[in-house]
Amino acid sequence: MNSEEIKIEIIRAAEKAVKELIKVAKEDIIKKNLDDLSPEIAADRLKNAAASKKLAIFDAFEILSRIESEKALIEDSKSNTKDMNSFAERRAK
């Protein structure tokens, strides 16, 4: 496996991770069993759940940003290779 193939595999894994983070962000914060808890515990759990969702969302955006930049680097690498071959072929004629 060359480095470009490895990067593509990493990108696929990152895309899968983003989908999992989306699932976390979509989960309900308030559960039906929350009525059984004291107000202090309920507030603490709500705060932690909200913080977890925020982290999941920001992580997903950060991963997406990195995916886009890595895809652009791969595409640039491919186009530069094609351009160099075309230039060499033109100069050889």
Name a few traits of the molecule.
93 residues; mainly alpha; single chain
Please outline the helices and strands:
Blueprint lengths: L2 H24 L12 H54 L1
Helix pairs in contact: 1-2
Task: Give an overview in words.
By secondary structure, the chain is mainly α. The protein has one domain (3-92). 84% of the residues lie in helices and 0% in strands. The protein has two helices and no strands. The protein has helices at 3-26, 39-92. The longest helix has 54 residues, at 39-92. It is rod-shaped.
Which structural class do you get from the secondary structure elements? mainly alpha
Query: Helix and strand string, N-terminal first?
Result: HH
The level of helicity is over 70%
Terminal residue distance? 34 Å
Number of helices: 2
The major beta sheet can be summarized as:
none
Fraction in beta strands: under 5%
Radius of gyration: 23 Å
Low-confidence stretches: none
Mean pLDDT over the residues: 83
Number of strands: 0
Number of domains: 1
Shape: rod-shaped
Structure, briefly:
The chain is mainly alpha-helical and about 90 residues long. The chain contains two helices and no strands.
